[in-house]
Amino acid sequence: MTARLRGWVPVLTFGLKFCALMALYYVVVLVPFVDRLFFQYLRANAWLSGAIVNLFGQACQVTDVTLRSGAFAISVRRGCDALEPAWFFCAAVLSFPAPFARKLPGVLAGSAVILLLNLARIVSLFFLGLRSPGLFDAAHLEVWPAVFIVAAIVLWAAWICWARKGARSRPDHDAP
Fold it and tell me: 96 in a domain, yes or no?
């Protein structure tokens, strides 16, 4: 193999691992048992978001996956769960050539940030729908999805910097 082709091996390896992990996510979410677990997770998101809305002084009731006030209601559905961007981030971290000891904290911390960001998204959309319903669709369908893509990429880049710094400080690292 030529040196030029050998330089592409890490990139191709990353790409194949990343694609395989993303495919795995989409296969897993089609399993009926997982769908039932998703519903429980969506209920938890609705409950936590409702608690936050109530902390901000807006009377809100939560029923299953729906947050409701006297003037507005929002339902937390599949796709409103941030699991896809969290898995996107995890797949990128897990596919990157770094020691597993650096990957695990990255996966845990990055996923937590994305899932907390999702609570902020649900709460902000609830208040936006309540106070500026004309902006709700644009924020829901355009702004927040872009925020999640950017957040996942920025978190991944930050993790790479952190993982590389830690690997450089240890002489026995296995990252390139």
Answer: yes
Indicate the number of domains in the chain. Answer: 1
Structure tokens at 41: 């997770």
d(Cα 46, Cα 50) in Å, to the nearest integer?
A: 6
Q: Is the pLDDT of residue 5 over 90?
A: no
Beta bridge partners of 66: 63, 75
Domain boundaries, position 113: 3-169
Condensed to tens digits (0 to 9), the pLDDT of residues 130-157 reads 999 999 999 999 999 999 999 999 999 9
Distance CA(130)–CA(124), nearest Å, equals 10
Residue 45: how many CB atoms within 10 A of its CB?
22
CB atoms within 10 A of CB 147: 15
What pLDDT, in 10s, does the model give residues 9-59?
889 999 999 999 999 999 998 888 888 888 899 999 999 999 999 999 999
Q: Judge whether 90 and 107 are in contact, CB under 8 Å.
A: yes
Q: Which residues of 62-94 are buried (b: 16+ CB within 10 A; e: fewer)?
A: beebebbbeebebebeeebbbbbbbbbbbbbbb
38 occurs within a structural domain: yes
The continuous run of DSSP H or E covering 154 comes out as: helix 144-169
Tokens (6 digits) for 128: 């936006």
User: Hey, what are 140's tokens?
Assistant: 């829901």
